[in-house]
Design brief:
Length: about 550
């Protein structure tokens, strides 16, 4: 450590979460012994308004050139403290945050001595790291003021209109020949009772009549290059291919209904349909049945698809109520495995005469011609229910093209193949590659209302980037010295985000080219570079050596 530095260490009690398990007085005493540390303070909450003000004043008064805060997780509070450092005139990258709550206090309860020793060790490493650090500038790039919306269902249309109404030029790409998506297959929306077809057509008219929206039907995304703020998008349709620029992307490709092949004799016997097919029958006025049975969780909450599809139960209740209101004498029975708390209309359905039977997964209902046999858990007896219409509630699943889309956009999928956001709380509706947002059933099974809400959220985040006019991101990226590059191509092979490519230089030699706005700072390229041409811009070898020396007690 440099002795001419002025490092401030700020310890947070985090109420009592840290203070009850870590001897902060001892930690403070040890920190004062470190070379370069000129200020050590402890507060109840450094993240409070009062704590932040005290931090800002200490930086100015003590003329600190580096700051370490020891408290909770940097995932939630690092940005806040960096802003305070900047406001006090200190470069935000000369700040380090040490996690004493999750990494000490919570994992070493009733082990105060060990927790304290570990806290001191972590802080020594944090001080060493920031001492060896350097000031950095944020990376900036202009943003193309055009948005690409993939998918013309209710989520895609809502997001496109929301952006267009704010003056943003939008390209809306839909693979089908008309807008509306799955909304077109529904009968009525619940609980409003609005006809889904009419609502879809109204939204489609709004899209078609907005001069800021360029609508591309029967169109597929075939190629995507560039980075947030400067994407080059290539699409293809019957008229040929088209390439255009886009600054941000909203993915609203929706989902599709799971087809229960041969389950409960589906498609092997007449009178057995899915809820979506039943919605179409209701819309066409083709329902003529005296005994209707609905089976919930067909293909969901099982080993292959362990998730709850969420929309199945509300749909069943909605359709059961609609059936009883139209045909009062029709007998409607719903076989279920328990209803989630958010399902509305159960009391209304019961008042109309809908029967409910809870079945077990190890005793599935059996179809015998037009008789359904089911073990009734309530009376612990087998019941035989006649039917002339059997309706299967099947889950929404990812579309077949989601795998190709995931690879093209470099966005992850979860264990069920749905596209997954970066962090459900810290970065909702956003992906790891900045500038790509998600809405609707491409993310997870969602109701029409939820899809609309998510679309507005995605549009708001996309607009915030476009309105700013430029993209600013932290220099948490790799750095390339082309003079040292041997052109081996190892970096290109391991990069998952296509951020680095081997290109031919003016002198005829091959050399790597790095796009820092595609880089996520994972360090894979740095680890395989044999010549040392690649480094981590935000973490130098000198910093790592300083941290390792403290960890080893040298």
């Amino acid at each position: 450590m440099r002795h001419n530095q002025r490092i401030g260490v700020f310890l947070c009690r985090c109420g009592s979460e840290i203070a009850d398990h870590v001897d902060l007085a001892k930690v403070e005493k040890e920190m004062r012994k470190l070379a370069g540390v000129t200020c050590v303070k402890t507060a109840l909450y450094h993240c409070s308004r009062k704590g932040l003000q005290q931090l800002k004043e200490a930086i100015r008064k003590e003329k600190l050139d580096r700051v370490v805060v020891a408290g909770c997780t940097p995932r939630t509070h690092e940005g806040l403290f960096q802003q305070v450092c900047e406001a006090a005139g200190l470069n935000r990258y000369l700040f380090e945050m040490v996690n004493l709550r999750e990494q000490c206090a919570r994992v070493h309860r009733n082990q105060n001595e060990k927790a304290t020793s570990k806290a001191i060790a972590l802080l020594r490493m944090g001080v060493a790291k920031v001492s060896a650090g350097q000031a950095h500038d944020s990376l900036k790039a202009e943003i193309e003021p055009t948005a690409l919306v993939i998918g013309g269902g209710i989520s895609g249309m809502t997001a496109a209109v929301a952006l267009a109404n704010r003056g943003v030029k939008v390209k809306l790409v839909e693979k089908e020949s008309r807008l509306g998506g799955m909304l077109r297959s529904l009968h009525r929306l619940y609980p409003s009772g609005v006809e889904a077809d009419s609502y879809a057509e109204d939204q489609a008219d709004t899209v078609r009549n907005n001069s800021n929206i360029g609508l591309l039907l029967d169109t597929h995304l075939t190629k995507l290059e560039g980075h947030v703020g400067g994407y080059q998008v290539t699409v293809e349709n019957p008229k040929g291919s088209e390439t255009f620029s886009g600054g941000v992307i909203i993915v609203a490709t929706g989902g599709q209904v799971f087809v229960p092949h041969k389950m409960y004799r589906y498609r092997l016997q007449r009178g057995i349909v899915t809820q979506l097919e039943f919605e179409d029958m209701m819309k066409r006025g083709e329902v003529v049945a005296r005994n209707v049975v609905m089976i919930q969780c067909v293909g969901s909450r099982v080993e292959e698809r362990p998730y709850c599809a969420r929309i199945c139960c509300p749909t069943a209740i909605k359709n059961a109520i609609a059936l009883k209101q139209r045909f009062l004498r029709t007998r409607v029975t719903i076989l279920h495995r328990g209803f989630p708390e958010y399902v509305e209309g159960l009391d209304q359905a019961q008042d109309l005469g809908v029967s409910f039977i809870e079945y077990r997964l190890d005793k599935l209902p059996q179809v015998r011609r037009n008789i359904l046999k089911v073990w009734d858990q309530t009376i612990e007896m087998e019941a035989e229910i006649p039917f002339d219409l059997l309706i299967l509630a099947t889950p929404l699943v990812p579309r077949l093209e989601v795998e190709e889309l995931s690879k093209m956009l470099k966005i992850p999928r979860d264990e069920n193949d749905f596209l997954v956001e970066s962090h459900v709380k810290l970065r909702p509706k956003e992906f790891v590659p900045n500038g790509i947002f998600i809405a609707g059933c491409a993310h997870w099974p969602a109701t029409v209302g939820e899809s609309i809400t998510q679309a507005y959220g995605a549009a708001a985040r996309a607009y915030a980037l476009i309105e700013k006019g430029y993209l600013e991101r932290e220099p948490v990226v790799a750095a390339l010295n082309e003079a040292f590059c041997r052109g081996c191509g190892s970096c290109e092979e391991v990069c998952e985000y296509s951020a680095i490519k081997l290109e031919q230089s003016d002198d005829g030699l091959k050399v790597s080219k790095l796009n820092q706005f595609l880089c996520t700072g994972c360090g894979s390229c740095v680890s395989v570079c044999p010549s040392g041409a690649l480094k981590l811009a935000f973490l130098s070898d000198r910093q790592m050596q300083a941290v390792l020396k403290q960890a080893a007690g040298i």
